[in-house]
Amino acid sequence: MSTKPGATIDSVVSLAKRRGFVFPCGEIYGGTRSAWDYGPLGVELKENIKKQWWRSMVQSREDVVGLDSSVILPKQTWEASGHVDTFSDPLTECQSCHRRFRADHLQEQVFEKAAKKGDAPASPDDVDLTTVACPNCGTRGAWTEPRQFSGLLKTYLGPVEDASGLHYLRPETAQGIFLNFTNVVTSSRKKPPFGIAQIGKSFRNEITPGNFIFRTREFEQMEMEFFVKPGEDEQWHQRWIDERFAWYVDLGIDASKLRQFEHPQEKLSHYSKRTVDIEYEFGFQGSQWGELEGIANRTDYDLTVHSKATGVALDYFDQESGERWTPYVIEPAAGVDRCALTFLLDAYTEDEAPNAKGGVDKR
């Protein structure tokens, strides 16, 4: 029997609370859409996912080591990496109900619906906001001009809340890996190709958190930065795309509900040469597919900008060739919470059983 979009996700949200997988954060105070708490079974599910990832990415390989870096890094980190200037999303507000949304998400939802009908424009960017209805109140075209909204979460260290104490909660774990590149190379005696893996919390000031644990302001990441010789990056990138896709299938995820999405050149992040997302058919209202993991070719961008900002050489001297070069970086980055949601959705089934009244109950 077919179900309408969102039906399964709603069933899983309800089941997750009843069975002790996931609870609304601060529920006795009304809860919040931007954070969730994991119950007894949810904790075990997350730990199993992290253990499987760590075993696959670190313990079973000779060319990857682990790291646990700080959540709050020097604020110059985010200035040099480009996050302060470019880590932002287009914010628009409905002038009727005053709810705020990401303009690009609104355009993508309309584009996806039009694509199913066969009359989609060339790209989501071509969707005119004046034709888009508000998801909250239904008013069409009452949007403010989109403006850039920073995704960085600020905090202050020290006794005075001024510019001198301004810091950011990390929006990704990757930068802590780049800052420790030389430390790891020296202490572990690794040479490219090799990787540094990390699991940890990250924070993003999402405009519209939602879809259960898919998009939240506090989340856990599983990231690995794989350092390779320039010129070998494209081969390694494709290899990691294939390996990461196979990881989900090997753990039992239905392959027919997985796909690879190639980011258009004009949509790439400021550090990326090529990015491919592994997407899962979550069945969200307005958008059937969602990113499960991204695999990016970050080139030598990060090591280069941090080297310039600090004056510290973050490169590698190849003794065999006598050459010194800055490694390119291939980054498989997955979300623990999105993985948990994927396994819950993929495992969810309903069957029917006769009841005492002669009817049928779903269970």
Question: Going across the major beta sheet, what is the strand order?
Answer: 3-9-10-16-13-12-11
- CATH H level of the largest domain: which superfamily? Bira Bifunctional Protein, Domain 2
- Helicity level: 25-40%
State Rg: 22 Å
| Spatial separation of the terminal alpha carbons | 15 Å
Which structural class best describes the helix and strand composition? alpha+beta
Poorly predicted residue ranges:
1-5
Shape: globular
Largest β-sheet summary? 7 strands, mixed
**Fraction in beta strands:** 25-35%
SSE pattern, N- to C-terminal: HEEHEHHEEHEEEHHEEHEEEHEEEHEE
CATH fold-level label of the largest domain: BirA Bifunctional Protein, domain 2
CATH architecture of the largest domain: 2-Layer Sandwich
Number of domains: 2
CATH class bucket of the largest domain: Alpha Beta
Number of helices: 10
* Mean pLDDT reading: 92
Beta strand count: 18
GO biological process, one term: glycyl-tRNA aminoacylation
Keywords: Aminoacyl-tRNA synthetase, ATP-binding, Ligase, Nucleotide-binding, Protein biosynthesis
InterPro entries: aa-tRNA-synt_IIb (IPR002314), aa-tRNA-synth_II (IPR006195), aa-tRNA-synth_II/BPL/LPL (IPR045864), Gly-tRNA_synthase/POLG2 (IPR027031), GlyRS-like_core (IPR033731), tRNA-synt_gly (IPR002315)
GO molecular function: ATP binding; glycine-tRNA ligase activity
